[in-house]
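Example 3.
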Amino acid sequence: MRIVVLDMNHTFFQPEESSQPEGQIIDSTSFHSAVESSCASAPIDKPRSNCAIVGVYAHPEAAKLVYSSLYALQHRGQESSGIVSSDGQNLFRHVGMGLVTNVFADAAIFDKLPGNLAIGHNRYSTTGSTVLHNAQPFVVSAKHGLMAVSHNGNFINSRSLRKKLEDEGSIFQTTSDTETILHLMAKSPAPDIAGRLKDTFRQLKGAYSLVILTRSKLIAVRDPRGWRPLNIGRKNQAWIIASETCAFDLLEAEYVREVEPGEIIVIDQNGLHSDFLEEKAERAACIFELVYFSRPDSKIFDENVDRARRRLGKNLANEHPAQADIVISVPDSSNTAALGYARNSGIKFEIGLIRNHYIGRTFIHPDQIGRDANVRIKFNPVKGVLNGKRIVLVEDSIVRGTTLKHLVRMLRKAGAKEVHVRVSSPPIISPCYYGMDFPTKDELIANNKSIEEIKNYLEVDSLEYLSVEGLLKSVPHEKGGYCTACFTGRYPLPPEEVMRKFEQDSNNGHLDEASVNDEQKTPVAI
Ligand code: SF4
């Protein structure tokens, strides 16, 4: 491959005549502070969501549609964003660190992303560090041609496969486990892309929803357990693939169906073709997507998230009633469950906490505003609503409990007479190996303390969690089962390799440590 550097931001990767005579990859980047972006959008003390993936086929402004979809899916990843488009001959790539609106702030970028096909990615890293070379989509020029990939999920055996590939001479450009897919596909002797995917995922195990772009095809793949959501939409003649259907709503596209677990979708000039990976498995859709991660206005796993969350709240009210005057939520992710709780308990729902959505990079130093500063920057109590009231505070999940402890203190200062916390999911006792970034097992409060001890730590009048049975009763089962491992410790696919998030970085020697903030250095198991 011949590399021609044009300027600081644009590089041409030109295949040699013999390897791939047609087509080239045209690459550009922009940089915005990942620290700033994660402050802007990430909730405090919650597991971090993984990634958003999007693909568009047969639309004259494919890159712009991908951009709008990534904007709708910003909640699934705020560290980096990127788009690769194809005009049928070349692949064009633009990636950068930061939020979608920062990375694509200059409208002229879209002049450099021509073509009717495009894929995109918002990243929150669950393996590999927060640096530009890990920003997706990745692009390669392999013996089968040009290819770009966006991945949502985590593999459980990528470390040993990567080592094997490196021992055989493969050179990795990034520290992300996604790159392993490209190396395995490049080695496959299969004549078509579906065959190469089957060869790859005979070896690589774990959670994956993927969109892949070649010069003329859009491909979508979902792992046999269907851990992460992936949906198919239609806008006139164009096909759209997206992690959640809120992306279709913004584009005024119709929801067609989800990509089935284990399904390979290939969209080309002859339409949409469906095939399946060889591995068969029980569905294990991530139930936490319905509890917290996905947007309530989305449909995932063929279910409206809003409807599932209301049922969580209703079942919570049935299991754990409280003597109280009002129900309030920890906004925004607990709003719908709180509405469900209020409906079934007959206790009035009120807005008792206001969340500031526009924090961004703040120059307010905690010392200036004293105790509970980090939480007070993000939430403010409505004193007129809370004063003198017995309150049910509905929260969707408790990880370390630090944020909730501060919130309870704020509610009491605002005049709350009693605070009864109700959690619309069971205690989190185990980490996630399938693409969600949880703290370590030792940091999970429910792993170390009994419910009574957590109640005392939070200084609340009562604390109750939804049971695992109540959780499962709140979600539909027509299409199969769910992963509940973080609540039960029962892993659908036991991790073969427990590793720390930055282990691959330290092996690779080109980690830009300075660009990783302390919070992002928190080790996680994958
Ligand atoms: S362990 Fe929890 S967060 Fe991870 S996939 Fe399973 S249900 Fe989802």
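The domain at 24-281 is CATH 3.60.20.10 (Glutamine Phosphoribosylpyrophosphate, subunit 1, domain 1). The CA atoms of residues 234 and 254 lie 5 Å apart.
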